[in-house]
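Q: What does the assembled structure look like for these inputs?
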Amino acid sequence: MRLSQLFTKTRKEVPGDEESVNAQLLIRAGFVHKELAGAYSFLPLGLRVLNNIIGIIREEMNAIGGQEVFLSSLQNPELWKKSKRWDDKVVDIWFKTTLKSGGEVGLANTHEEPLTELMKNHVSSYKDLPVFPYQFQTKFRNELRAKGGLLRTREFVMKDLYSFSRSQEEHNEFYEKAKQAYFNVFERVGLKKHTVLTFASGGSFSKYSHEFQTLCSAGEDIIFLCKKCNVAVNREIVKEVNACPECKNTELQEEKAIEVGNIFSLGTRFSEALKLEFTDEKGAKQPVIMGSYGIGPARVMGTIIEVFHDEKGVVWPETISPFALHMVSLEGGEKDAEKLYEEFSKKNVEVLYDDRKEASPGEKLADADLMGIPLRVVASKKTTEQKKVELKKRSEETATLISFGELEKTLGV
Amino acid sequence: MRLSQLFTKTRKEVPGDEESVNAQLLIRAGFVHKELAGAYSFLPLGLRVLNNIIGIIREEMNAIGGQEVFLSSLQNPELWKKSKRWDDKVVDIWFKTTLKSGGEVGLANTHEEPLTELMKNHVSSYKDLPVFPYQFQTKFRNELRAKGGLLRTREFVMKDLYSFSRSQEEHNEFYEKAKQAYFNVFERVGLKKHTVLTFASGGSFSKYSHEFQTLCSAGEDIIFLCKKCNVAVNREIVKEVNACPECKNTELQEEKAIEVGNIFSLGTRFSEALKLEFTDEKGAKQPVIMGSYGIGPARVMGTIIEVFHDEKGVVWPETISPFALHMVSLEGGEKDAEKLYEEFSKKNVEVLYDDRKEASPGEKLADADLMGIPLRVVASKKTTEQKKVELKKRSEETATLISFGELEKTLGV
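A:
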């Protein structure tokens, strides 16, 4: 894409109403816009990053048998009364509103109830199980305080997968698969090294649930890390068991972290409340065993920025970068830049091409740093004279002069 | 995909609370689930159709210079007060709710106000225009009566594009491009033949706006069609000008139709209210000229069913069908079916493979008709003995025996 055509503009000033690094950089780079506290709009470059993250999660969910659905946001109170989660005293983050035709409706903050209810049309026998529907759908949460930019918002797209199994063993087997799929996601988006499996409270149906916590000074969670096992326990658990659940090590290190995902055994909590049953091989009715598995792609995006940035801007991991290459055309390099852009476009290399005539070299290079695409190529009078271009990784300080052929090789085309 | 793995089930019974053909068939085929009146959830096959429609619209919007964004649903009342559209007496379909931290917010029923406001960060000079952001984003509309299944709902994904131009001429030029892009969309989803450009009221800034109306007995709109020009006028316009706006023909035929899209010249209605200005070539401040362009992909989906169905089920156009091929394995044909499924999967042909062991031949064929995939292949003992398979188009009555090679040719692999 030609930067001269992109409608968004960068800005130098840090927005006064944003304390978090992720929101400051995203707004300055023109990736997102703040609508109100806790609600952000995604502009073209930001949406590309979000969709790259969503694409990775989708692949990993499909790989473990996930089937994608898209449930409504508007919620029928009757279902939530059955599970006793309609009352604001029980769930304190509801947004509720009123139908013009009469009656209250809610905006979904999670989707256990409607999904459990709809599965009653599709599950009756043990032959119909196990199944793993998931979606990318907006959740609305009436947080008292939105904070941390994309880290805690009132409206966000969430990937939520729900497992429906016949037995605890079948559930456990999928739970482990989902855990691995989550690690795959965090590996692919670049966060694996910083992310630890964290034991959290399990509710009535299992000892533990698990959070995926990314170590980061901007995190609002506190976890207690066992450096031997690279697992952690959260605040709640550490009060009960002040030791690593795996090696019993009691020397746990307190760390700030961001919760980037969680997986939860729900047992029969919702299937009993909403009467989702199946007939087993002996003809007896059994409640379905459920689990839920969440990742917020925008929170992952915010976390990646918190972990990967410097004073100049974002440093996107390759896999989720809005473009593979940021190509800057400076005076005298226009012809080479144009030629390379045409060639790469034909070969489906995603290039953000800074072809702006009026921006100064300094502005162009500062924008490239701010936007954070992992590879930058500059074509100028100097490089043209040598029949080369200048290549620089966003994560490194030094640029190197390379031939067109070497550039093609770097990009694998 | 193997039908034995798909979690949804079909049903024979027509749902008692649905009068419209589209909702009845979609629910029976397991494509959607009704959450409440006017809110539907999309199940795997339904989501595939919706995404195919969205994919076509996205390509056509990108082709005319659209840049995709994704705005928030939660709305800041202040912006809508400036354009005088916050008051329920003016806009009577608002869903409003309250922030826990205090203050009202709305759920977006359209996005002119927030987009105009955010463009102020990106547009200042004539050099920044024209630009055409668009999105696929949920709209919430508090309709007194939801009706017609997917045709009029309280919550639906909408493609809304907005144009920001420097002059009326520049606006008009884009408006014509958008009109053509809309015809391309309706051509590609199979509705072009049934869809007519319909002149509608233009508001204060232009004589007309335009609706795209699909002729259909299930439609709730009445239009007045000029058979010579294949254009129409809507109810409002016919009262003022009882003649074809193109040939002045006064013999207009009354028809029922479904509005599948609309395009609208907004002039400076929103740019003046929200102060979106640019500096022109002479250094003078000018308000931006705007337009809006909407299509509801789910309404298009519902309309397609209303137009293309028979007593057995849906008849999807190829371009939006959830799969390219519905392959049915009957007794004795399992080996051939399995072999073809493996081969086609490798070649990226999208096959819904009915490998169910317990469904009867009658059930399998009835499900194929209900689900409506345009091509059906049956492998049975009879076809295997002849080293052939049976091919039938969903839109035709007769099946033909063809060789594997001929099938590959039909599928273009």
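Residues 323-411 of chain A form a domain with the Rossmann fold fold (CATH 3.40.50.800).
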